[in-house]
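Final report, closing paragraph on structural work. Over the funding period we assembled a curated collection of sequence-structure pairs, and we close with a single example.
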Amino acid sequence: MKKEAILIILLLLISFGFGCSSGKTKKYDIEYHKGTQALTLRFLPHMPPNTVYSGDVMDVIVEISNRGAYDVEYGEIYLTGFDTSIIPIFGENPLQFNVDGKNEYNHEGSKAIVQEELVDITLPEGVDRYNTQIEAIACYDYQTTATIPICVDPNPRINTHDACQANDVGGGGGQGAPVAITSVQVEPGYEKLRLILTINNAGNGVVIDGDACPFGYRYEELGNVRYDTPQISGISLNCEPNGMIKLIDGSAKIYCSTTDLDANQAAFKSPLTMTLDYGYKSSTRTSLEVRSEI
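Its predicted structure, as stored:
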């Protein structure tokens, strides 16, 4: 009887222990470097309204959501798309903002609000109505931090004790930013490794140099992405083009290699790590009608 009582107590303690531990979420269990979004924008309801009248005062409020895994500092919102002689802007344009991205403690990312009050809305004499778009354009710097598991096989001639096979890999649904490594072609050799990385603008915005945003359109201002030296298993890879790529039709390739592998080592998995830096532009728009005074 005494043994049965002790057994029951032990079972209860074990059950209680499992119940307590199951509700805990470890911060490193959350894969927040996922997805292909950066900032998304929206006008708050009725800010601006669909219709205003000559002489009205109008508030424009833009909500900025950071859906990626990089904190944006000193971002800028431009309000454009309308005739400023009818709808003047007397306040700041652009409007500045900061907004944090996803991290181990914030799985959704943060939001920011910018507001502009537009006054002295005036239709020209003889004009009964004016239909236009109001567009909010965000210009900001963003960064992709990529960590992609690669099978490294220093001696593909021998398969003894290999823990993996050196196959091509995909980007796994993005790396928490719009510019992503979408595939890695793996070409193993004796004591060497060659990788071909495909980089794509997988987001809905435009890669554009910061000093050219929002209206830059020249070839040299668009699609420029800087990257640091990729590493795998503590080895810095030799890559071409070196340090900078240009996305053509949203895509580019980086060719990397190393000859610093040990042929006496069996195949193993190791994360390929690199960061990509670039300027980015996101936007949203809404319709507006200005009518003459009632």
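Helices lie at 2-21. The two ends are 92 Å apart (CA to CA). We thank the funder for supporting this effort.
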